[in-house]
Every structure is written in structure tokens, then in C-alpha cells.
Amino acid sequence: TNPSALGGIKSDEYMALNPQGKMPLLVLPNGLALPESEVISQYICDAYSEVGPSLIPDDPETRAVAALATRIHDVYVVPIQGAMYRGPMDIEARAEGIAQIAKQLDVIENIMGLRTDGPFIAGAEPSTADAALFPTWVFIEHILPKHFGWTDGVFVGRPKTEAWWKAMCADTCGARVLEEVRGGLEAWEESGRFVKVGVEEHVKDTSHKWAY
User: Is the pLDDT of residue 53 over 90?
Assistant: First the structure.
């Protein structure tokens, strides 16, 4: 359900379910409200542990790698990714956000190499970490080359992340996510979002660095 059905994420009705006033939020049939992506992800894996792949690695070290990737994403990427598409925003804040995204792409590249037995973050099989990171990378892969001048793409110097990206795009569930998120991005393009929020005007200012 779109939060607008409750009056938006800052409405009293929504805030009663999630006092942080943020997405996502899972409300169970019994009324239990669970915010935060990682909490929701773990609940689904536990509740449906007998259905399909577990998405939870078997050994402690690999589980830790998956947890590390998710943690870096949630704490260091999610708070700044709005620099790619939100506004109005101070130009210095946007430029710093893009610089930090570039830094975190390299951090994640290193994490991608901690397990070498497959293309996914935790190795041979997809995990909750892949589910957490992939939608954000759909934004990154589309927006940074198109609007911030990353003409060589976002995978230059990041071969492990590129291999992961290709594996996720080829995965059945990954392909569904890719199609859905790209559909939303195409709608943004058609609506002129990147002009409206000030991105197009900001990147004209060459006193700031936009491409990495």
C-alpha cells in the first residue's frame, strides 16, 4: 500500500506505525508493525524458512560478510544516495554526497572480494545482502552515468561489483527488481525530475567534481 493512502509518511496514522516516518514498513495481519529493511528481511526469512532458498549463508563467516555488506549499505550509502536525485539541495552537499557514494562503491568492491566461490556477495548463492544492495545499484548504474558524467560507467576499477551486477541482472528475482526500479526511473526521466530538483543545474558548475 502506498503511504499516501494513510496521508503520507509524516501523517499521524503512519507515524503511529513507524515513529521515524520513513519507508519501508511491514504491517502483519495481526497488526504488528515492523519498520526497517533489515528487520523486515530477517522476519521474512524466518517466517518463510521452509519456502524456497533460505538467503541466509550456512557458515558464520559468510553470514558475517553478508551482514557487513548490508550494514555498509544501510549506514553509509542509503543516507547519502539522495544526492543523486533529491532537491532542493545545497550544491556543496550534493557534491559531497556524490564523492561519498564513489568512496562507498570502493568499500563495497572490497567486500565483494571476501568470498570468491561465486558472483554473489556471500559466494555461490544469493543472500539477503544481495537483496538489500541491488535496488540501490540500479539507481547508481542509471543515474551517475546519465546525469553526473560518469561516462565510463560505475564499474570501472570495480570488476567484482561488475560481475555481481551481471549475476544479479541474470537472476530471475534480480531481473524482476531491475525491471521494476528502472520503470520508476524512466517515469522520473519523463517527468523532468532531474531538472526540477536542481541536478541538471548543479552539474553545470565545474568548480565541483561530479564524475569519478
Answer: no
